[in-house]
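Subject: Protein record for review, amino acid sequence with backbone structure tokens
How to read it: Take the token row as a discrete description of the fold.
Enclosed: The protein record, placed directly beneath this head.
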Amino acid sequence: MAGRRIKASKDSRRRTENDLHPHDCGNWVGCSYFVAALSCATQAEDFPSGPIEAINNSKPGGGSDIFLRFATEKAADILGTEFIHQSKTGGVSTNTLKFVSSRPADGHTLLIVNAGTMLTMMRGTVDLALDDMEPLVRGTIDPNFVVVKAGKYADAASFIEAAQNNTIKQAGTKVGGNPHVNALLFRNAVGIKKQVHVPFEKSGEIVINLINGNVDRGAIEL
């Protein structure tokens, strides 16, 4: 692993949603799950020297919990150690990141990085940034699609023009989820000035409200 970086001040790293741009995120955003570890100065020959903590931001049995257990199953045999799985939910990954930042940077703490984790770190609300971590495994990549009601716009260009000059109600899933973050990236990339995120529990609700005209566009995850 690479050496641990010197952290910038918290204020200098604080971002807002308006600052988000695809080139800021590299390969981190766009994938549903990414496993990372805190950066450490050296890789000891006797690593691991004990159990490895695996932290996720969903409830036990959730998507990231299941993925992380699969990802570490074989690693336990290869490394000759056990993985202790913990769920730290709440605050769009805030509780996960606060817990991880309290752990030593010795490679014995892994965490799930997803869209919510990225958004919280980029806002600078926790004392942990991408530079403090080393990516290990890219888990899954789920494309998101911008969808509108059929027949409302002639083409993508006419939708973008309308969106640039009007307030847009954007439907997606939970705040901080993949569709929400990707919607923010799309908004900033094409220059949408006013966009309101309307969260729904399920994709089916997004489609129904889109067809009924309650929202202007939706972000659908496949």
In short: Helices lie at 10-13, 22-25, 63-79, 94-101, 115-123, 156-165, 178-190, 203-211.
